[in-house]
């Protein structure tokens, strides 16, 4: 048995696919967030690694272990790419909350944690509702959802990706001051 062909090469192909598919995930995220300067660099490295992996597959067409490694690396790279996306959590999201009752405790708790809140009264299918809007960085979404579930577990909420926010206002209770940053486009 050829150790390089049936063990080392498939492991290298597997690892290469993990890296290039993870980079493909990042490239798509960067495209969706309008991060133009990073896209060419990530694209170059991604396709360079892919060419190396596929050329080794083509040189060893009778090696089924290489095929399995290629497919397994793609699957693992997809999973790792999703984990990387969750960890870096780039961008903003809109949380829209609809409650059947007025939600002063929920609003107060969200504001105490530093979320900018806009709330309005509206009419729903079953009468008056409160609609609460939050624009937050993605890295804070889980915390906001925990607060929503704690204070109003039956609230309907949706989360939507936002590509651009014209200005950002944060209140951090630990700092006791407003931080405002105006974005330029």
Structure description:
The protein has five helices and six strands, in the order H-H-H-E-H-E-E-H-E-E-E. By secondary structure, the protein is of the alpha+beta class. The protein folds into two domains: 3-88; 92-182, Alpha-Beta Plaits (2-Layer Sandwich), CATH 3.30.70. The protein has a four-stranded antiparallel β-sheet with strand order 2-3-1-4, covered by helices on one side. The protein has a two-stranded antiparallel sheet with strand order 5-6.
Throw out a few tags for this protein.
single chain; 185 residues; alpha+beta; 2 domains; 4-stranded antiparallel β-sheet; two-stranded antiparallel ribbon; 5 helices; elongated
The portion of residues forming beta strands comes to: 15-25%
Q: What would CATH call the architecture of the largest domain?
A: 2-Layer Sandwich
The count of DSSP E runs of length 2 or more, i.e. the number of strands, is 6
**Spatial sequence of strands, sheet with the most strands:** 2-3-1-4
List the helices and strands and how they pair.
Layout (H helix, E strand, L loop, with lengths): L2 H30 L6 H21 L4 H25 L3 E8 L4 H9 L4 E8 L2 E11 L3 H11 L4 E7 L4 E6 L4 E6 L3
Antiparallel strand pairs: 1-3, 1-4, 2-3, 5-6
